[in-house]
Known about the structure:
Elements: H1 2-12, E1 25-30, E2 40-45, H2 52-60, E3 67-71, H3 77-89, E4 93-96, E5 98-102, E6 106-110, E7 114-116, H4 118-123, E8 132-135, E9 138-141, E10 143-147, H5 151-157, H6 165-184, H7 190-196, E11 203-205, H8 208-213, E12 226-230, E13 235-239, E14 247-253, E15 256-263, E16 265-266, E17 272-273, E18 289-293, E19 296-299, E20 301-307, E21 315-321, H9 323-332, E22 334-339, H10 344-350, E23 355-356, H11 363-371
Helix pairs in contact: 2-3, 9-11
Amino acid sequence: MIKRFILFLASVFCIPFSGHASEMTFTRASNGGNCYYGCNWTIAQGEITSRTPRVFQDYLKHGHDAELVFDSPGGDVVAAMELARLIRAAEMDTMIGRSEPYEERWFTVVEGGECLGACAIAFLGGKERIIGTQLFDGDFEGRIEFDRLNGHEILEGIAGKSLTGADLLEEQIEIGIFVEFLLEMGVSPELYARIAALPLGASLAISNEVSEELRVSTSRVSQRPWRLDELGYGLIARTGPREDTDSLWAFCANDGFHLARAFSNVDAEGAPCDQDTCYSASDVMFQDAQIEIGDRHFPIEFLGLRVGGIPGVEVLVDSLVPREALETLPTAKSISLNLNTVSRLTLDRARVFKWRWGEEFDPRLIKLALNNCVQ
């Protein structure tokens, strides 16, 4: 049964990679910096073979960093599933990106990373999964493609063959094993249906929106929808359920229109912290920044940190923006902070207001918040 399942997987995946690709290697990489997040990662580069899981296990014996960055043309599907489980057991995050060396033994991440075929299966092992990279060096898009499965075709063809009940059961179990793998990785089984429905020889390249819908990718920032909440004698529009303190806020007050981020955690110096970074007061006090809401840019004036006075909120990073900026939020799907002068020292600052929610929301939420200003 196991041997047949292995042959089944090898036959149902079309694996379009070059025969000249090198076997996958795992390399510990660093940009030479000393930061809380994203200065060190693991490069996973090359073709996945039957040897790859054992090579990865040997690599783990010498320690590893939380982020595993793939750049691979594909390879052995069965080995990729085993690799995915090892990645999950190691509690590593998976990303997609190209890493290039610079200045002796240091590395940097650049555009152009891809994870195709079997690599896309291994990618699903990540505790957090990002189609691209979100490291200290930058934020880049990546490319992921799942190869066409023959499972749908196999099931349709069974009726035209003389198969025993045991044969039919084995075919169904084999397909069921792959769906079970998706569920184990926290991925929607609809991914299998979409792959199985592809034309012969086709691949499935999915957008960020679809990947989040199918839970192929996750995110380090909240993707929860917006809602209304009370604050003082007024209303705010904010992300996430009420029990999530860490959230993005949009509201108006006597002094203007506000875009703010609430933090529930602070470090020993009282600086706000999310799961990736702690931001000092100087990190949120700088000039000439813009907020990008969807595909539009708006000027902002940082007010800095507001400490205390709000139940459950340790620190509020607060900024003034034009009213039009907040009215743009319902159709924007994301915001980010753009700095006129960008260096490695300022990239972490740019993450203060980096947020994605992935879908449009009811504009009446913003309208109500702006008509019921906080007092």
